[in-house]
Amino acid sequence: MDIFFLGTGAGMPAKLRNVTSIALKLLEERGAVWLFDAGEATQHQILHTSIKPRRIEKIFITHLHGDHIYGLPGLLSSRSFQGGDSEVTIYGPKGIKEYIQVSLSISQTYLKYPLSVVEITEGVIFEDNQFTVEARLLEHGIPSYGYRIVERDRPGTLLAEKLKEAGVQPGPIFRQIKNGETVTLEDGRVIEPDKFLGPSQKGRIVTILGDTRFCENARVLAQDADFLIHEATFSKGEEELAFDYFHSTTYQAAEIAKQANCRCLCLTHISSRYDRNTWSELVNEAQEVFPHSEIAEDFKEFHIPLR
Ligand SMILES: [Zn+2]
Ligand SMILES: [Zn+2]
């Protein structure tokens, strides 16, 4: 599980930071990439990476400001020409459906793969046997969602030696026990999986927030997250400006990470008012409050290890 930043700038593209797009790479977990926002030229950014558009399975849109969605129609269209034939599901606020339909129909774009668009409300918006995704509204003037991606705990490793000592021979039974099933042997003995499995492996939690003011739902979505991505459009001391423009400061992002007991914070949505030399100052500000703070850069990747 890795986070790959495709675009990390605020509002409009800058030379060093394109507008927002974040890839959650789940290649080992499900051979897929989930995208969060698709600012203009996201597909150009992807060209410089190892990400395959055909691997994109889901696209989560945080809000409908242009710097988060202007890259979507082009990306969807090109995916057809890049071997993409598997279904894509897009999740986003009310209006995302019309935006996509109008863009595709006026440009007479026909996709070679099934596309479904889900206009979300707060709550669990996706769930399968691997992941749950929950969305909540933040504070940004227009509806802006934050997403909390929770990986299910994995069963512990199989204690094969212990099973052999109990007279169970390797075979399909091992797999059943590994999957947590209770097995009755031919001799009538019942094998409880708990006794033959190591401790279960805690699933990871990733929280990716759209643009927002400092707000309570950000904290709720970030609770105990392994990796929190929070915007930091302003630096510390600019709380009033941040409030007026529905954005956050470095300090506020760090305060959320601290209150929510996160493992790592990554600042993004960085204004072009800050040049390369001042990025480290922004991180330092956050680290005063929350030591495990990082700053996103275009094409920077973060691995999210198991605990
Ligand atoms: Zn934005
Ligand atoms: Zn915005």
Distance between the termini: 12 Å
Give the proportion of residues in helices.
25-40%
Distinct ligand kinds: zinc ion
Structural class: alpha/beta
Treating each run of at least 4 consecutive H or I residues as one helix, how many helices?
11
List low-pLDDT spans.
none
Task: Briefly characterize the structure.
The chain is an alpha/beta fold and 307 residues long.
Q: Describe it for me?
A:
By secondary structure, the chain is an alpha/beta fold. It has eleven helices and 16 strands. It has a seven-stranded mixed sheet with strand order 6-5-4-3-2-1-16. Helix 10 runs parallel beside helix 11. The radius of gyration is 22 Å and the shape is globular. The model has no long low-confidence stretch (mean pLDDT 96).
Element layout with pairings:
Layout: E1 2-7, E2 21-26, H1 27-30, E3 32-36, H2 42-47, E4 56-60, H3 66-69, H4 72-81, E5 88-92, H5 96-106, E6 115-119, E7 123-127, E8 131-137, E9 145-151, H6 160-165, H7 172-178, E10 183-184, E11 190-191, E12 205-209, H8 216-222, E13 227-231, H9 239-244, H10 250-259, E14 265-268, H11 276-289, E15 293-295, E16 301-303
Parallel strand pairs: 3-4, 4-5, 5-6, 12-13, 13-14, 14-15
Antiparallel strand pairs: 1-2, 1-16, 2-3, 7-8, 8-9, 9-12, 10-11
Helix pairs in contact: 10-11
The structure holds zinc ion (2 copies).
Keywords:
alpha/beta; 7-stranded mixed β-sheet; binds zinc ion; 16 strands
